[in-house]
Amino acid sequence: MGRHWFGQSPSDWTFKTGDGNTVVLAPDKPLTFWSQPVGGQRYDDLLDEDGNKITEIRSATGLGDLPPGSIPRFQGPEDVWLMWVDGGVGVRFAMLATDVGDTLALVPDTVAVVAAIQATLATLAHVARTGLYSDLAGTPALARVATTGRYPDLNELPAPGLQYVTKGAEGWPVRSSTAPDANRPAMWIGASPAPPNGGAYSLDNDLWAAVA
After folding, report:
1. For residue 25, which phi and psi values (nearest 5 degrees)?
2. DSSP secondary structure letter of residue 44
3. Which residues contact 172 (CB under 8 A, 6 or more apart)?
4. In angstroms, what CA-CA distances link 20 with 15, 39, 57, 145?
């Protein structure tokens, strides 16, 4: 999934205790990052805002664009969303990736895509079980897959299972019309006489279902 951005949010500042226990900003503070609040693995595979490799972050000095004490933007290690930051005071604080909202915004679209895939698989499963294509009305791409056994998006790999050849008003069509894969059996469906054997028609492993 890649790296995620951290820092430069309203909560990303470094502080220290001043006179009279007042809280004051702590510029140029070195920060290290860890996988756990206590112990754990140190994360030292970081990138600064310009993509340069770094092992720790320092809070802003106030001499640049950022105010003193603010934690600048940086990228964490691959696929890490949460880190525990240590400023050297004996306790670590959780820091969450700032681009988590962007990722969550993709969830509804992803769910819709998954639902569409599930519906497609259910339809094809119905066709495989029953041999009926009524559920494919209005979906010519799926109908083409079901009737030809071919998946153009999969580099023309043949579909597994039985192929069908249906007798029309003008007689039996050639096998390749709806059963193009000679390595898989085909079910010929139609009234007598049986489909011709050999040539462009029925092969030795094919079946014939005689219907009125």
Report:
1. -65, 150
2. -
3. 165, 188, 190, 195, 196, 201
4. 15, 32, 29, 77
> Would you say 43 and 100 are in contact if contact means Cβ atoms under 8 Å apart?
no
All residue ranges of the chain with pLDDT < 50 are: 153-159
User: How far is Cα of residue 131 from the mean position of the Cα atoms in its chain?
Assistant: 31
Q: Which amino acid is at 194?
A: A
Secondary structure percentages of the chain, helix, strand, coil, to 5: 25, 25, 50
Amino acid, single-letter form, for residue 181: D
Q: What is the pLDDT of residue 116?
A: 73
- Reduce the DSSP state of residue 70 to 3 states and report it: strand
**CA 57 distance to own-chain centroid:** 32
Q: Helices in the chain by DSSP H: which ranges? A: 100-105, 107-130, 140-148
| Structure confidence at residue 48 (pLDDT) | 97
CA nearest to 77, candidates 107, 35, 36, 106 = 35
- Residues 59-110 have pLDDT tens digits of 999 999 999 999 999 999 998 999 999 999 999 999 999 998 887 777 787 7
pLDDT value of residue 154: 40
Decide if 44 contacts 10 (C-beta within 8 A): no
Separation of alpha carbons 108 and 89, rounded Å: 42
Structure tokens, 72: 């600048």
Q: Has this prediction a pTM greater than 0.70?
A: no
Beta bridge partners of 157: 151
How far is residue 5's CA from residue 72's CA, in Å, rounded to a whole number? 10
